[in-house]
UniProtKB/TrEMBL annotation:
NCBIfam families: sensory_box (TIGR00229). This is histidine kinase. InterPro entries: PAC, PAS, PAS-assoc_C, PAS-like_dom_sf, PAS_fold_3, Sensor_kinase/Photoreceptor. The keyword Oxidoreductase does not apply. Residues 222-273 form the PAC domain. Pfam families: PAS_3. It comes from the Bacteria. Keywords: Kinase, Phosphoprotein, Transferase. The keyword Calcium does not apply. It catalyses: ATP + protein L-histidine = ADP + protein N-phospho-L-histidine. Its EC number is 2.7.13.3.
Length: 400
């Protein structure tokens, strides 16, 4: 842009004679209103620029009148060529012009959005009539959101954690990139939804997943640990947790997270298969149960978004009572819950679900059946707290 700029005198005089002062009106608009011409010989002329140009470029109308090359010093060098090329393309194809770009105004970086309609003139030149707006605040917010999104994606990869949104009415989902990785699926060839989740879920665990969805409709939360079989036939353990709600259209929506817990589950199952059982209950003995609590506490401190619950009951410390109490407890907990006997009639269960309503339901069933069996007991349900400093703090609160 290297030619002089000038106001259209005839246009100005018409405005003066009009009942509406168009110059004052354009000066009152946000940003800057302009009329720019590109001649067939390649010269650029601003036929009109409103006074708002100073709030956009930091220069005066007079500056642009003298030499449009001043813009080369205002528009960020990396963006200048792109701006010019976008205008040339607009002129070539006679299409509207739209562009976001950066400028340096009074020593500070700002974002500008320019748009204009295009008109081919009889003499072969192109005329743009448009507006320039400062969009710095919006752009900074947009860049901040993108930065947070990148940070979230990085954090998810480090934690082996993904997030998703499931529409129960359509069965369709929105997944973060990590979810595709956890399921061993390619993003560009996968249509995320409940169908693909059920297809990948281990056949023996599919009912647990559907039960968790139904439970979410009732309690507002969803939590389930289940296995998946990936395309390479490897089996992985996932923990899914979600919140149920209705959206503005009345559709049933679950927002949730999914995390790979394979290492944790394999260690837990290995410990179960290597002994350490209490002779009266068949549950973990004291040493194994305390070790399980320590592992779960360590996981919670690393991921406080996943609290855990402990069910504790105290019964008479004799072999017959313990055996019967163990039968009742086992019948009313899930396969993935971890029960143990700490001695002296104190039975504890490290619960696998994060749903307090479900855990309270298990507690009530245990209390009822112990009472029906004539077994006196003291039962409690405790949840891990972010103030816990040791793994046994939750145990201390649960002790009768």
């Amino acid at each position: 842009m290297n030619a002089r700029s000038y106001f259209s005198v005839s246009g100005y005089m018409k405005a003066q004679n009009s009942s509406v002062d168009l110059v004052s009106l354009t000066n009152a608009l946000p940003g800057a209103v302009y009329q720019l011409e590109l001649t067939e010989s390649g010269d650029w002329h601003f036929h009109f620029v409103s006074e708002g140009i100073e709030s956009i470029y930091g220069c005066t109308v007079s500056d642009l009148q003298k030499n449009t090359c001043v813009l080369k010093d205002i528009i960020v060098a990396d963006d200048y060529e792109a701006v010019v090329n976008s205008l040339l393309e607009s002129a070539k194809y006679q299409i509207p012009w739209n562009k976001e770009y950066r400028v340096v105004r009074n020593g500070e970086l700002h974002w500008v959005y320019g748009h204009a309609v295009t008109e081919r003139q009889a003499n072969g030149s192109t005329l743009w009539k448009g507006q320039l707006l400062d969009i710095t605040e919006r752009k900074q917010l947009e860049l901040t959101v993108k930065r947070h999104q990148r940070n979230l994606e990085l954090a998810e990869r480090v934690a082996n954690l993904g997030h998703w949104k499931l529409n129960l009415n359509t069965g369709k989902s929105i997944w973060s990139d990590t979810v595709y990785e956890l399921y061993g699926l390619e993003k560009n060839t996968t249509d995320p939804g409940l169908d693909i989740v059920m297809e990948k879920t281990h056949p023996q665990d599919r009912k647990a997943v559907t039960d968790a969805i139904e439970a979410a409709k009732k309690s507002g939360v969803r939590d389930v640990e289940h296995r998946i079989i990936r395309s390479d036939d490897t089996v992985r353990w996932l923990r899914e947790s979600g919140i149920y709600q209705l959206d503005e259209n009345g559709d049933e929506i679950i927002f949730g997270t999914v995390q790979d817990i394979t290492d944790y589950k394999e260690m837990e199952l290995k410990l179960r298969s290597t002994g350490g059982e209490d002779e009266h209950t068949g549950f973990y003995n004291r040493r194994m149960m305390l070790r399980a609590l320590q592992r779960r506490f360590s996981f919670y401190k690393a991921h406080p978004e996943y609290p855990y619950f402990l069910l504790a009951l105290k019964v008479t410390n004799d072999s017959k009572t313990l055996a019967r109490a163990a039968e009742i407890v086992r019948a009313n907990i899930r396969d993935y819950d971890t029960p143990g006997h700490l001695g002296n009639g104190l039975i504890t269960v490290l619960l696998s679900t994060l749903s307090r309503p479900e855990n309270n339901s298990s507690l009530r069933r245990v209390i009822t059946e112990l009472s029906d069996a004539g077994i006196e007991s003291h039962c409690m349900l405790e949840e891990a707290k972010n103030t816990d400093s040791r793994f046994d703090d939750i145990l201390t609160r649960a002790l009768p």
